[in-house]
Amino acid sequence: MTLSMELAVLAVLLPLAASVTNITSTISLSPAQTPSPGKQMHDAIYNSFSIEFSFMVEYAGNDSHPNTFSQQVIQNLVDISGEPPMFRVGGSTQSLAVYYPDQAEAIIDPFESIASTQPNYSFIGPAFLQSFHQFPVDTKYIFGLNFYNPDETLFDIGDGLAQCVLEAHAAYTSLGDALYAFEIGNEVDVWPGTDMRSANWTLDDYVKQWNHYAANISLNLTGKDDLQLFQGCVFESPRNDVANAEADGMTTKRAKTVSDHDYMGTNCGYTGVGPTIESTIFNRTLVLSILWYHEYLGNLTRASGIPYVLGETNSIACEGAEGISDVMASAIWAVDYVMYLSSLQVDRVHFHMCTRCRYSAWVATPFNGTDPQVYPLYYASLFNAQVFAGGEKQTEVLVNTTSMGAYAVYAGGELESLVAVSVSIWNSTEDATARPYTALQLPEGWEQARVFRLTNPGVDVATDITFAGQSVNQAGEMVGEKKYEDVLENGVVLVGAGEAVLIQL
Ligand SMILES: *[C@@H]1O[C@H](CO)[C@@H](O)[C@H](O)[C@H]1NC(C)=O
Ligand SMILES: *[C@@H]1O[C@H](CO)[C@@H](O)[C@H](O)[C@H]1NC(C)=O
Ligand SMILES: *[C@@H]1O[C@H](CO)[C@@H](O)[C@H](O)[C@H]1NC(C)=O
Ligand SMILES: *[C@@H]1O[C@H](CO)[C@@H](O)[C@H](O)[C@H]1NC(C)=O
Ligand SMILES: *[C@@H]1O[C@H](CO)[C@@H](O)[C@H](O)[C@H]1NC(C)=O
Ligand SMILES: *[C@@H]1O[C@H](CO)[C@@H](O)[C@H](O)[C@H]1NC(C)=O
Ligand SMILES: *[C@@H]1O[C@H](CO)[C@@H](O)[C@H](O)[C@H]1NC(C)=O
Ligand SMILES: *[C@@H]1O[C@H](CO)[C@@H](O)[C@H](O)[C@H]1NC(C)=O
Ligand SMILES: *[C@@H]1O[C@H](CO)[C@@H](O)[C@H](O)[C@H]1NC(C)=O
Ligand SMILES: *[C@@H]1O[C@H](CO)[C@@H](O)[C@H](O)[C@H]1NC(C)=O
Ligand SMILES: *[C@@H]1O[C@H](CO)[C@@H](O)[C@H](O)[C@H]1NC(C)=O
User: Fold this and answer.
1) Buried b / exposed e across 83-118, counting CB within 10 Å, b at 16+?
2) Does 215 sit in the ligand 6 pocket, CB within 6 Å?
3) What ranges in 398-500 are assigned the alpha helix state H?
4) Pocket lining: 202 vs ligand 5, CB cutoff 6 Å
5) Which CATH number fits domain 47-267+293-390: 3.20.20.80, 3.40.50.1000, 3.40.50.2300, 3.30.450.20?
């Protein structure tokens, strides 16, 4: 059938939709009845978060003043999916933190100015750990430990190993079962030649030191040196270093998981034109080329018995870019990104956030005149919570073009839903009636499916976003009635440029 014939057919079948809808293409979705062998199972923890270490108290509060905004937005996700996301609490500031058992304040973290995104350092005391008890029940944490030199001059630390054990002992004692894993140091692959390590410090040196610190913590906590409670590597970007670290002696004896970090572009250190939506998160060629490394390394580490985690990620590095990270485009990108990652041997994805970051899913305390609020990225987690609700999900890539990703989702080995994401720019400034739509032709038997839509007037703005008809108010609560759309006649679902749909049997 030619496109015009298809349009004519659709116009007959969908008189109402066709009269107001510009259908520019048709794609048939043909999922297999079962996933291919070896696909990883995921649950709703798949779309998890990472909070920059020094901002944990702002996000979570403490025993007497829990942060009710964070509690609410996490509870929304629990209400949809049945389980809370996991929180990795770490980042650059974990490596410049020092634990003082006698410090009364939860955290002392001076910022150079209002424009600084991170403090000079973070001195933490026992009260800091109260913040790990405020999120909904069953929330698990990855705690980012410091990793100073054995003989450390910075902050007059002295014995860096003893400081690491001290911090680990306090966290382990406080968090109990809520502690999923420790990291030891953040992005150490970029440390050689900095304040943290000498220029000749190699990957092999790192692995030896990591094993030494992990063994010491393990002995301290359990009397044995083989506590498998560590997320290793935590590298800045995924090239081959995770595989090399394993070859150098990071093994299942202590490594529970290994983690890499990644971003689709950077808001610092570039020359010439800065990043745009089109050149970064909506450049599917670029995004897929980045995803290749995670596919490759996920395959390798899975074979070694250590699951691979995307332990810190987001749209644009250096705290995000205005007009990219804080608008609808980031939510659409994040749905496609998480769905694609879930089809690989990648165990979990942690979206990074901080009070002073532009890419945060939410900000939980007032800052610079802005109230606590959710940002567009949060809507991607609502969408993904719905996809992975109930757990035991496997995914397959169905459509993989420069402008669209579509996926099949299997629950307990059986086909359950389809996801389609249009990574095409549609701006709020354009005439809404001209928005192009792709007609998704569903397989037979899907006529009664329910359609959940993520939409707003344009990917360039953060306004009027709804998922299944609902939005999030100033208090972080879901508002509006949850609405499913029906499949159109002849088994068709429309997805507009810059929209995502979840079609559930
Ligand atoms: C708990 O948080 C409140 C509000 O930020 C603060 O005033 C109080 O000092 C904190 N308590 C502890 C033990 O840190
Ligand atoms: C603080 O708010 C002012 C006024 O809206 C704005 O110009 C400035 O860029 C903001 N600063 C930071 C660091 O966000
Ligand atoms: C923080 O660091 C800046 C330079 O990086 C320095 O000028 C400032 O004095 C430092 N502030 C504190 C409280 O250490
Ligand atoms: C573990 O480390 C903590 C903090 O340094 C210390 O108080 C404790 O005595 C140590 N426990 C063992 C068994 O070594
Ligand atoms: C590495 O560099 C440090 C400090 O520059 C130096 O003390 C040490 O001897 C060097 N180690 C090796 C193996 O070259
Ligand atoms: C633990 O660290 C202490 C202090 O550096 C050291 O004396 C001890 O040998 C270490 N133990 C292990 C098992 O690495
Ligand atoms: C998209 O990314 C590819 C690969 O990095 C690059 O060659 C291309 O120029 C990018 N397109 C845009 C519009 O920036
Ligand atoms: C990863 O493994 C899968 C399944 O064996 C294979 O199809 C794929 O090509 C591998 N990808 C890479 C990048 O090695
Ligand atoms: C998706 O497209 C990219 C880029 O062409 C390719 O590398 C990748 O293997 C494709 N993935 C699937 C599952 O077809
Ligand atoms: C959409 O808006 C963005 C941001 O304002 C702009 O950079 C881009 O050129 C616009 N694209 C189109 C297709 O209008
Ligand atoms: C439909 O969308 C296409 C592609 O964006 C555009 O060229 C065309 O002008 C639109 N047609 C109408 C009737 O809006």
Assistant:
1) bbbbbbbbbebbbbbbbbeebeebbebeeeeeeeeb
2) yes
3) none
4) no
5) 3.20.20.80
pLDDT(9) > 50: no
The single residue listed with the structure tokens 């829990």 is 66
* Alpha carbon distance 159, 151 (integer Å): 5
Give pLDDT tens digits for 239-287.
Answer: 889 999 999 999 999 999 999 999 999 999 888 999 999 999 999 999 9
Mutate to test the pocket of ligand 2, among 114, 325, 368 (most ligand atoms within 8 A of CB): 368
Helix (H) or strand (E) holding 23: strand 22-28
Query: Token pair 């995104």 is at which residue?
Result: 117
Amino acid at 308: Y
Task: Tell me the ligand closest to 265's alpha carbon.
Answer: 7
- 158 CA to middle of ligand 6, Å? 14
Q: What is d(CA 198, CA 178) in angstroms, rounded to the nearest whole number? A: 35
Domain definitions of the chain by residue range: 3-38+396-504, 47-267+293-390
Residue 239 pLDDT: 82
Kindly report, residue by residue over 305-350, the tens digit of the pLDDT: 999 999 999 999 999 999 999 999 999 999 999 999 999 999 999 9
Ligand 3 center–CA 191 separation, angstroms = 20
CB atoms within 10 A of CB 448: 8
Of 98, 99, 163, 165, the one to substitute when testing ligand 4's pocket (max ligand atoms within 8 A of C-beta) is 165
**Looking at the domain that runs over 3-38+396-504, which CATH code has it been given?**
2.60.40.1180
Distance of alpha carbon 303 from alpha carbon 116, whole angstroms: 42
Residues having CB closer than 6 A to ligand 3 are 110, 112, 120
141 CA to centre of own chain: 14
CA-closest candidate to residue 230, choices 244, 219, 218, 241: 218
Nearest CA-CA partner of 229 in 164, 172, 161 = 172
Burial class (CB in 10 A: 0-12, 13-18, 19+), 205: middle
Q: Is the dihedral of CA 147, 153, 158, 163 positive or negative?
A: negative
CA of 431 to the centre of ligand 10 (A): 13
Task: Please write the tens of the pLDDT for every residue from 255-266.
Answer: 999 999 999 999
